[in-house]
Amino acid sequence: MATITDVAKKAGVSKSTVSNVFSKKRPIGQAVTKRVMEAAKELGYHPTYWARQQGLPRNRIIGLLLQNPSAFTSFHFALLNGIVQACREYSYRLLINTVPQPWTMEPEYVAESPVDGEIVLDPTDPDKRIEERIRQGMPMVVIGRPPYAYAPHLSSVDNDNAGAAQQVTNYLLELGHTQIAFLNAARETTVALAREAGFRAAFQTRRTPVPESLLFHREQDMTEETLLEHVRQLLRRKPQVTAIVTDSSWEAAIVYRAAAEAGIDIPARLSVFAFMNIGEQIRLKPELSTVNLNAEGLGFEAAKLLIERCEGRGAQIKQVAIGTTLDLKGSCATKI
User: Fold this and answer.
1) Which domains does the chain have, with CATH numbers?
2) Could you read off the pLDDT of 168-192 as tens digits, one per residue?
3) How are the residues of the chain apportioned to helix, strand and coil, as percentages rounded to the nearest 5?
């Protein structure tokens, strides 16, 4: 790991100059500042605010690092409520990080961050955000399943997503559906891997062939119109499909729209089930069956775990599981 000495040598300045560039305690010329920042970035040097505060009182601030801050749903509000409850209980404040991801990797940003630790949401595999914070030595808790390479070294809070997927799939299989399409989350997310494993396990346990041609992953930034066209083609080209499982109620609402266009009745001819309720089910008729992920519980436990680590009371790596339940409504029915 690069040190302040390495940066000073590469930039051709003193260590005190490098320190002042990041701390801004003394004015440094623009040209020198640029040279120091370029050297720090090239060497991967990150003088974190957290590291510079060792031996000093903590700020009692934790951060929430979102993958896509623009996609804030009712799930996130419930999650946030749980985090805020824990912060209130332990007298901490919360900083929600909505800075674009590329900028969070810059040495200047890292040096100025006031948080004692961060909660990382929606992990991917690999995940540069997690890699960067491990390199910084910043306390961190992941909501979701951490990337495989880092799982033994990271505390996390998650649902049993594989178990929930198997439970949902078993429910549909018991209703007589075997041609079940699965519109899963983005392929690079760890939750997508877990849900696919549960989906497959349900079929395999019953010795029923897995409908491989009906497994799909949506793109991370897929638009509503693109997904709608994808579902239209699915219903047109795969008429054997009698049930669809989606990542969230957002995708489910699009399935409802495509089914209505094609004259397909829900649930008489098509059953629909979503993992995550992000608010759209309120306007769907019939009401949508979903998985209750207990987002508030996820947030509370993640914040509690992170605060323990920030205060030196949580040295042991923990993986906390939050239970789920099926919220059965009117969107599923026995196959005719």
Assistant:
1) 1-45 (1.10.260.40), 161-291 (3.40.50.2300)
2) 999 999 999 999 999 999 998 999 9
3) 45, 15, 35
